[in-house]
Structure formats: C-alpha cells, structure tokens
Amino acid sequence: MTKQSTENKSAEEMSSDELAAEIIGEAEEQVEEQHEHAHEAISAEQEKINELELALAAAQATVADQKDSVIRAKAEVDNVRRRAAQDVEKARKFALEKFAAEMLTVVDNLERGLATIDGEAEEQKATFEGVNLTLQGLIAGLEKFGIKAIDPQDQPFNPELHQAMSMQEVEGVEPNTVIAVMQKGYELNGRLIRPAMVMVSKAAGVDTQA
C-alpha cells in the first residue's frame, strides 16, 4: 500500500469517527430533550394534580362547614319548637289559675255554709243535702281541670304546702303535726296556688313567742 493510500484511509476513518460522534451527539441531545419534555410533562401533570387536590380539600371544607351550619340550624329549630311546646303546655296548665282562685272563694263559702247547717235536723236536712250536692259538684268540676284540695289534717307539717297560723301543745301528738285545718289549700296541676292554713302541734315546753 502506498503512502498516499494510507493517508486517504486515515482521512476517511477520521471522517467516519467524526460522523459517528456527531450522530451520537445528536442522539444524546434528542434523548436529553425528550427527558426534558417528559420531565416538563410530569411536572405539569403533578401541578394539575396539586391544583385538583387543593380544590378537593376546599370543596370538602365547604361541605363540612355547610353540614355544621345545617346541624346548628336544625338544633336551633328544635330548641325553638321545644320552648314553644313548653310555653303552650304551661299556658294550658295554668291559664285557669286566676279563675280557680275566684272559684275557691265559692268553695270556701259553701264549706262554711255547710258547717252552720245541722244535717241531722229534719228541717235542715234538705238544705244541707242541696248545699253539699252543689259543693261536691263544684269540687268534681275543678278536679277535672287539675285543681285539687290540700287537706293535711293529722299529717306532718310541710312548709312548702302549709301555712302555720298557730302552734299548740297537744298531749299524745307528735310535734309539727297538723292538728287543725282552718282553710284548705289548693294546687293546680301540681303547682301550689294557695297554701293550707293550719294549726300545728308543738313540743312540750316550747315557747312559740321566742
């Protein structure tokens, strides 16, 4: 092989190497660009996912707030309804209180009238029976509306239901026992509207003036 042939081959070989290097370089650039594009695509997708997650979290928070508002509103409505029902019930139970107080005066007068009539006397028997029938009818009518008498004769004294008008020592009777009812008390559906006026026994040697 001549010297010129050797030089031409070296030139050709160098051109091939340069071409290969250029091709490899371009391929690497393309791969790098593809990596960059892929990375950018992944970043864009991740950003979109982050946005959606934030939007979802905001929507869930809004739903939770609205749910709490609905629960609070429902609770408030229930409270209003309950208070209204209680007010209606109280009004229904105690609307007759003033009327009952007036009717009790009639009951007192009829009872006092009966006390002055001798039911055993023939000439007064009809009057006694008539007044007593009227009294019992009135009491029965009042009881239908929740008005009941408090007659604590021989019962322990109860300051919540009874009003002590006087005290007296009575042999054989426990102290603080009602020994006489001067005026019956009354309650309306369990609510005291008039205490019973009573005389109460006391222990021996107790000074009621002290």
Strand content: 15-25%
- Given helix and strand content, the structural type is alpha+beta
Number of DSSP strand runs: 6
Radius of gyration: 52 Å
Average pLDDT metric: 82
Distinct helical segment count:
3
**What is the overall silhouette?**
rod-shaped
Q: What order do the helices and strands follow?
A: HHHEEEEEE
Q: Could you estimate the helical fraction of the residues in percent?
A: 55-70%
Descriptive keywords:
alpha+beta, disordered N terminus, three-stranded antiparallel sheet, 3 helices, Nucleotide Exchange Factor Grpe, Chain A, domain 2, rod-shaped, 210 residues
What's this model, at a glance?
The protein is an alpha+beta fold. The chain has three domains: 94 residues; 50 residues; 64 residues, Nucleotide Exchange Factor Grpe, Chain A, domain 2.
Description:
By secondary structure, the protein is α+β, with helices and mostly antiparallel strands. It folds into three domains: 1-94; 96-145; 147-210, Nucleotide Exchange Factor Grpe, Chain A, domain 2 (Roll). It has three helices and six strands; from the N terminus they run H-H-H-E-E-E-E-E-E. The protein has a three-stranded antiparallel sheet. Strands 2-6-3 form a three-stranded mixed sheet, with no helix packed on it. Strand 4 and strand 5 (191-194) form a beta hairpin. Helix 2 packs antiparallel against helix 3. The longest helix has 92 residues, at 3-94. Mean pLDDT is 82; it is low at 1-9.
